[in-house]
């Protein structure tokens, strides 16, 4: 069964950091673009960042300079390092590859 499983979410104070992980089972990442999306309450799901098979990256303007997406194809895992977190980063974060979505992990930024 093909699955994406996110982990690493939690509660953090403004200015803090978290690292999210997206682990794939039943498939490999190596030839695919993998993306992180997020959805805040009452808002549409939005693209946060994606990484190509060649390692090229792209970020939403709202997270540029603060978030870093990376991949370890040997571990079938994609990461999202989030620094200088803000309350507006609060959302459920989802990993995506093509039509496959993970279940999401909650990130809450609050003092």
What does this protein structure show overall?
The chain has 111 residues and is mainly β. It contains no helices and 11 strands. The protein has strands spanning 3-7, 10-12, 18-25, 34-39, 46-51, 57-59, 67-72, 77-82, 91-97, 100-101, 105-109.
Task: Please write out the topology.
Layout: E1 3-7, E2 10-12, E3 18-25, E4 34-39, E5 46-51, E6 57-59, E7 67-72, E8 77-82, E9 91-97, E10 100-101, E11 105-109
Parallel strand pairs: 2-11
Antiparallel strand pairs: 1-3, 3-8, 4-5, 4-9, 5-6, 7-8, 9-10, 9-11
Q: What's the mean pLDDT score?
A: 95
| Strand content range | over 45%
Helix content: under 10%
Give the CA-based shape: globular
The number of distinct helices, counting runs of at least 4 residues, comes to 0
SSE pattern, N- to C-terminal: EEEEEEEEEEE
Q: Give the radius of gyration.
A: 13 Å
Would you report the number of β strands?
A: 11
Contiguous low-pLDDT stretches (5 residues minimum) are none
Distance between the first and last residues' Cα: 40 Å
What labels describe this entry?
single chain, mainly beta, 11 strands, 0% helix
Quick structural overview:
0% of the residues lie in helices and 51% in strands. With 111 residues, it is mainly beta.
């Amino acid at each position: 069964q093909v699955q994406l499983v996110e982990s690493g979410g939690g509660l953090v104070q403004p200015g803090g950091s978290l690292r999210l992980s997206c682990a794939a089972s039943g498939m490999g990442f190596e030839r695919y673009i993998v993306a992180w999306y997020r959805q805040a309450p009452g808002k549409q799901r939005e693209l946060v960042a994606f990484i190509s098979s060649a390692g090229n990256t792209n970020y939403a303007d709202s997270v540029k300079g603060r978030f870093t997406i990376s991949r370890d194809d040997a571990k079938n895992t994609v990461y999202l390092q989030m620094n200088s977190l803000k309350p507006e980063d609060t959302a459920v974060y989802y990993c995506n590859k093509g039509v496959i979505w993970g279940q999401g992990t909650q990130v809450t930024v609050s003092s």
